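Possible regression after last week's pipeline update?

I re-ran a chain I had predicted before the update to compare outputs. Posting the input and the new output here so someone can diff against the archived version. Not blocking, just want to make sure nothing changed silently.
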Amino acid sequence: MPARLFQCSNATGVFKAEEIMNFTQNDLVSEDVMMLDAHDSIFIWIGKDSNKDERDKAVQMVMEYLATDPSNRDDNTTILKVKQGYEPPTFTGFFGVWDTSLWNDNKSFEDVRHELEGSNPVLELDPQLIDGARNFSDFPKYPLEKLQASADDLPEDVDKTRRELHLSEKDFMTAFKMDHGQFSMLPVWKQHNLKKAARLY
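New output (post-update):
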């Protein structure tokens, strides 16, 4: 099954994703977020000039894309976030000829990785974790009641699409009757239903 590339943008004021046919590296737009569906995994490519709203909504869109795909995709499909200029071979391989000088001043992926002191710029995302944070405890915490407020009344550092990440362990258990590790293993549709029932959606 060939890979599919989607451009995710809110340039028109409304977030939308459009598929790009017969894509090449030049179709990766620095101002936007792109989604590459490689079937066994999905890459979220972060353009260096994209905005936070596009990045957050792209992650949400990937989750909905997987949940509604008529081919019954595996809920555990790997989701990888790739930053512009730090593309690994597993990503660039879908684009045929890849020009490393286009954004990186002729630096290879390996060069860039060494500059980052061995840290891997490709972040594998647990579907519940946003922007590469790896631990539930990394997110700022707020009381359950505060997180059930309308989107306009939420604290600025709360991810409106992943409110449950900002619960304390105790409140998470109260809201979902399970810990975050158990919750993250549930199918996406079941997570959504539980979040709606807990008024965290």
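Follow-up from reviewer: compared with the archived run. The beta strands are 4-9, 16-20, 33-37, 41-46, 78-83, 123-125. Marking as no regression found.
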